[in-house]
Amino acid sequence: MPQTYIYNPQPGSGGLQPNPGNYQRFISVIADFLLAVLLVSVASYIYQSPQFQEQLFSWRSTLSGTLPIQQPQNVTAQATAAISKISSAVVSIYGFENTPESFGGAQLYTKVIAGTGFFVSIDGYVVTNKHVVAYDNYNYYVILPNQRKLQAEVVYRDPNNDVAVLKVPGKNYQFASLGQSSKIKIGEIVLGLGNNFGENLSVSEGQISGLHKTLLANGDQPQNLTDIIQTTAQLYPGDSGGPLFDLNGNVIGINVATADQRPDTSFSIPIDDVKSEVSSVAGI
Fold this sequence. Notes:
- This protein has four helices and 17 strands.
- The chain is an alpha+beta fold.
- The chain has a domain at about 175-280: Trypsin-like serine proteases (Thrombin, subunit H, Beta Barrel), CATH 2.40.10.10.
- A six-stranded antiparallel barrel has the order 3-6-7-10-9-8. A six-stranded antiparallel beta barrel has the order 12-13-14-17-16-15.
- A hairpin with a 5-residue loop joins strand 6 (about 110-120) and strand 7.
- It is globular, with a radius of gyration of 22 Å.
- The protein starts with a strand and ends with a helix.
């Protein structure tokens, strides 16, 4: 599930009525209200400035200019190699809501959605969850491992599954290797990589604990998800759309949800279930 951040909270508006017996108090209330409106307007203008927007997209920068990746403790050398293989193909996704409000000619954004995706082709096709990029009135961006920010276009939303495909401009992207989810077994070690809480890319490790599960996806677009992989890898808001991969660094699933109040029970869409549609859209 994507993490949603609320920006530019609107000041409360109670019906101000003058008190005939306390004119000074009424003037003071009006002055306080006008000051609050002014402060909110200035904050909104600063938020929309190009400098602030650049800071928003570089808040996780490091001296090396690459996104830090947090790894679980005691990972094996094989797991480290798998993480290294796939990490250059994983991106953070952010969606900014377009609103009809503006200040000084600048568009105001009031909500931000954070999620994860991964490249499946050299020419800029990114797979994620449909619920990460569900809204047409949002502008979507991806942040590459080298901190580059690119605007993304939603080119496909699966009507029957929680899968979507984005396209970013350019070529020569590192892309993930797609494995075979039909060959996985219960007890197998798996890894997940995602934009944890919208803050950084984090790795989670676990085991496959169930196969062929069914999920009911609630929300704005409820749907049933079938043939789902269940794992013990801990996933959190912002991890949706990220890859579930094996110790060879091959994607075997798309992380989609966790059980309520149980982050150690997570669910992924098998990669075999989406290969054909992704291939037709991305031309791979």
